[in-house]
Known about the structure:
Layout: H1 2-16, H2 30-36, H3 51-62, H4 64-73, H5 82-88, H6 100-111, H7 115-118, E1 119-122, E2 128-129, E3 133-140, E4 145-151, H8 155-176, H9 180-183, H10 185-200, H11 202-215, E5 222-223, E6 236-240, E7 245-246, H12 250-255, H13 260-278, E8 281-282, E9 290-292, E10 302-304, E11 310-311, H14 315-329, H15 333-342, H16 352-367, H17 376-388, H18 396-415, H19 421-437, H20 439-456, H21 460-516, H22 528-544
Parallel strand pairs: 5-10
Antiparallel strand pairs: 1-3, 2-3, 3-4, 4-6, 7-9, 8-11, 9-10
Helix pairs in contact: 1-3, 3-4, 3-5, 4-10, 8-10, 13-18, 13-19, 14-15, 14-19, 15-16, 16-17, 17-18, 21-22
Amino acid sequence: MKKFLRLLKITRVAGRYRLQDLLEGFQLNSALALLLKLPLRADPHLSEMSRGKRLRLALEELGPIFIKFGQLLSTRRDMLPLDIADELAYLQDQVAPFDGEQAREIIEKSLGSKIETVFKDFSSEPLASASVAQVHTATLHTGEEVVIKVIRPGIGRIIKQDLALLHKLAEFVENFSQDGKRLRAREVIRDYDYVIHDELNLQIEGANATQLANNFKDSDILYVPKVYWDFTRQNILVMERIHGIPISHINELKKARINLKKLAETGVEIFFTQVFDHSFFHADMHPGNIFITRERTDNPQYIALDCAIFGSLSEDDQQYLARNLLAIFKRDYRKVAELHVECGWVPPDTPVHAFEATMRSVCEPIFEKPLSEISFGSVLLQLFRTAGRFNMELQPSLVLLQKTMLNIEGLGKELYPDLDLWETALPFLENWQKQRLSPWHNLNRIKDKLPEWIEQLPDLPELVHEFLQDSRASRRQEIQALQEARKKMEKLRQKRRRKRTAFGVAALILAALMAFTALGPWMNTFSPMLWAAFFGGVGLLYFRS
């Protein structure tokens, strides 16, 4: 009944905001088209709003889970119309907080102790409130200031119910719309399911933060607050409290005399270092999750918060991105097409010349602009979109990368409008590519793998023996299969031979009969011996065959 009532509310909200208009232009199954024509009451005051804004407001009204879904959906710019994606990007994390005393009870239950036992003081007033959790400030008895992130009570049950409905709706869209499969609705919901469940486990977020801090422990350009693991559980996360300037507060950054040009370039450096050197990147770097330290003005330092969503690229993914982006920058579209086929990102039967022509038609207008006006993120977006026309299946990590790249570039342009992302990114990519191809890099890779190889060395004779045994067994199976096939062929030949023998015998018998008698008046015009000769010849031919 609860699911049914929830579905009714979703239907009512969809009708009020005329969300069925979003499906205009799609080829729909007749049953779905009829369903969308049902008299759902629309709000006349919303008729002048854009379709993207109506969708955003509807998601906000449906609650935290749909807000979060809208945020994730906004990252799928490879499949959404840009006007909708841009509007969904405005969705904010700020939602109504739950009662602070309830947060206190959750913390005490999770830690098995009274608040006063663990913390010197605790603020029941939340510092911030988001769709899945909210944050409270506290102080440890050692004097260290911390923040406590607490998962909303009952949010798991709500997520489970809403996700079940979203999965059903996605399946419905794909089954009843001819364009539904192209939208890959079920794939989007599966990705969201994975992300939202990770966000519900704050120990995963703590582990991500610890890994990010370790990756930049020898660097002074990024700081990650310390995680207090003794007080962290699946539903609460205790971290060091930081004091900095939100990166979106440009005027405050200027008052603090932060070098904005250097700040923008450092953000690009951090991103590419995470992607290509660490293969572990923060995939939710919107302005609300980034602060800047006040003390370092000429060489600004970033502070990264909210490490719930992270992406990781394989070596093949890294090579794909680096080589393709370099080829695009050099306008070598033939190379781009060949790389896509070589990397297996498009089907092997993809016509290279057609893919090359499409890439050229998309990218050449972009490169007609001055280099400083070219959006790196837009080029990446066009690359994915164009490849999508040739049945390229995007990996979730590449989607996260695209979203993060657009966030970073947009943020950089806001900090320093004259930022030339290519000037920073391309040398990085070229140096990375040279390092990957250098003998020293490959020697280091061998050096890293050498202990593992040495450890496996005593097992080498046994592995060789097992390999030879497997080879012999496989060979015996092949020989046995071949013999069985030959036996079947021989049986088939014998069966055909018996049929031909029987037919030949019948023909010879008939020939003998023809030699001694005429079979009817209709044969009187022909010599019986002529008929005997004919059937006898047929019989001999079948015997010979």
